[in-house]
Amino acid sequence: MSNNLSGDTLRVALVAHDQKKDALVAWVETNAEHLESAQLYATGTTGSRINDALPVLNIHCLKSGPLGGDQQIGALICEGKLDALFFFIDPMSPMPHDVDVKALSRLAIVYDLPFANSQSTATYVLKGLLNG
Ligand SMILES: O=C(CO)COP(=O)(O)O
Q1: Total tally of structural domains belonging to the chain
Q2: What's the domain range around 103?
Q3: Would the annotation count 81 as a binding residue?
Q4: Is the CB of 65 under 6 A from ligand 1?
Q5: What is the mean pLDDT of residues 28-50?
Q6: Which of 9, 62, 63, 97 is most buried when burial is the number of CB atoms within 10 A of its CB?
């Protein structure tokens, strides 16, 4: 099931930096039954990795993060079109688009969007969403 208790379809964005993509794909596989009828968005490379592993999820892929995908997700947040952001950030590697990463993180905070950066937090956030 991917609806919350009030029956609304969950709208979720999935993003991972390269060193965290395996972890996000594994987390999505573990939670696929909860995500399969959610409305899913992802940045380009993250989305194609998830699509390869789980084509059934029907993810809407945006641009790759460094090419504007992070900003597209930020726009969805501003427009009230997301219920959560699962963004597995790599804390060990410098990013050429660090400003976009910061901007996306900032908007998630500004709009008080449930925002998970690692597997354990993602699991708690998803449980919270499902339980309304
Ligand atoms: O860079 C990203 C987030 O900052 C993710 O982008 P990709 O999913 O295209 O790799």
Answers
A1: 1
A2: 11-130
A3: no
A4: yes
A5: 97
A6: 62
